[in-house]
Design a protein that fits this description.
2 domains, binds beta-D-glucopyranose, Rossmann fold, 24% strand, Quinone Oxidoreductase, Chain A, domain 1, 348 residues
Length: 348
């Protein structure tokens, strides 16, 4: 069968290769791959900046944003052939740290976790794949065309969970959220904000293409001015940062309301120094009880929350987030980022 593979840390090594058909181990399911989403992490892996091949091999099957249909499932599992399914990305450290031992592998403390398509485990960008039922999530059959958005939705479900846990340290009744970046993570974070009944503002640099209209269709406000203008007017209780752009990250930290919470979800590039007044920012954080919290990955409870959020969302709005769908053999085009892209999907 065909799989999209890469040699981690070797730039430009992505190749479609013939690999052996997977055979499910005891208790595992065999899945017919339908689609994988392409994200910034995949592009970093292909650029040779990130990623680990499975032990003893030099190539990794890419793909962590999965969608498939169950072909075979163990009779004692809660899955049956034909079910729409998504595979979880992370597995706990085999010698679990405290967090992994408590099912919170998204909070792994010792870095010993593994991740499908990213770290030490083959991903889901292959015509067939296997998965343990305990690390698979069943999706509403109506989500067949958009279910590939499940993994990024799990990431924002975790971000919201973190924000709400931080908020609960004291009285917390947020009314307004600002999301910086109208990519898939930003737009899905905005969706979950609207589902919480909040006044949602989304900031991005583009003024044309699909993003402004997609934000408005959600009932949220789209801005392309400076972050300072938006925060002065909207006074967000919460900022979800989804650009990873250093200057935006710092401005987000410096512009919340008192008792503000900034959740960073974008992975910033390293080595691009900017000059900032950390004293002023730290002073505001102390005097306003502000919090900056980083959030990555998602555990099973976040996948369950994401499945619920997607089932509740308008499937037509979700479909607007997928701006390009390409067959697997056109992977090179999918890996190129275009300015008008929201989510690019490879069909398997
Ligand atoms: C994935 C996460 C993963 C992270 C770091 C992200 O793109 O969505 O699941 O933990 O990369 O590897």
């Amino acid at each position: 069968m065909r799989a999209l593979t890469v040699q981690p840390l070797k730039p430009g090594s992505a190749e479609l290769r013939d690999v052996p058909e997977p055979s499910p181990g005891p208790g595992e399911m065999l899945v017919d791959g339908l689609a994988v989403g392409v994200c910034g992490t995949d592009r970093e892996i292909v650029a040779g900046e990130y990623g680990w091949a499975p032990a003893g091999r030099d190539r990794l099957v890419l793909g962590h944003e999965s969608l498939g249909r169950v072909l075979t499932a163990p009779p004692d599992s809660s899955f049956a052939p034909g079910d729409l399914v998504v595979g979880v990305v992370r597995r706990p450290d085999p010698e679990p740290c405290g967090a992994c031992a408590h099912g919170e592998f998204d909070m792994c403390r010792n870095g010993g976790y593994t991740e499908r398509g990213i770290k030490d485990l083959d991903g889901y960008a292959s015509e067939h794949w296997t998965v343990e039922p305990g690390y698979a999530v069943k999706l509403d059959p109506r989500l067949e065309h958009v279910g590939v958005l499940m993994e990024p939705t799990s990431v924002v479900a975790k971000a919201w969970d973190q924000i709400e846990r931080v908020g609960r340290r004291s009285w917390f009744e947020p009314r307004c959220v600002l999301v910086t970046g109208a990519g898939p993570i930003g737009l899905l974070a905005a969706l979950l904000g609207v589902q919480r009944g909040l006044d949602v503002h989304v900031l991005d640099v583009v003024t044309d293409g699909p993003k402004p209209e997609v934000v408005r269709a959600l009932g949220a406000h789209y801005h392309s001015s400076g972050i300072g203008d938006v925060t002065a007017r909207a006074k967000p209780d919460v900022i979800i940062e989804a650009t990873g752009v250093s200057a935006v990250v710092f401005e987000a930290m410096a512009s919340t309301a008192a008792y503000g919470i900034v959740c960073l979800t974008g992975v910033s590039p390293v080595g691009r120094a900017i000059s900032v007044d950390l004293g002023a920012a730290g002073r505001d954080m102390v005097l306003e009880n502000d919090v900056v919290v980083g959030s990555v990955n998602a555990n099973l409870s976040h996948y369950a929350a994401a499945a619920g959020a997607l089932a509740e969302a308008d499937p037509e709005w979700l479909a607007r987030l997928i701006t390009r769908r390409l067959p697997l053999d056109r992977y090179a085009e999918a890996l190129e980022a275009h300015p008008a892209d929201i989510k690019v999907v490879l069909e398997l």
